[in-house]
Amino acid sequence: xxxxxxxxxxxxxxxxxxxxxxxxxxxxxxxxxxxxxxxxxxxxxxxxxxxxxxxxxxxxxxxxxxxxxxxxxxxxxxxxxxxxxxxxxxxxxxxxxx
Length: 98
Ligand SMILES: [Zn+2]
Fold this sequence. Notes:
Number of domains: 1
Bound molecules: zinc ion
């Protein structure tokens, strides 16, 4: 496995070259937000939530330290109620003392 950093303008050409050689291409993108799906608290309809950034990517019902609160309005036209959810920062390295 090889990791290659590709300039934007060369990207598509490189993708085509790799695919025509019959190779597998795995794309790693940084800085992406995270998509989570959950059921509305009020009617159970499926709701899609996006993380506010690529740091707060853990989705929680309850408030935690350093969490970002989001009020997500239900997309069901008969409901349209708010669902409060929290995005929590991904845990950093854990240091243990013994
Ligand atoms: Zn709802």
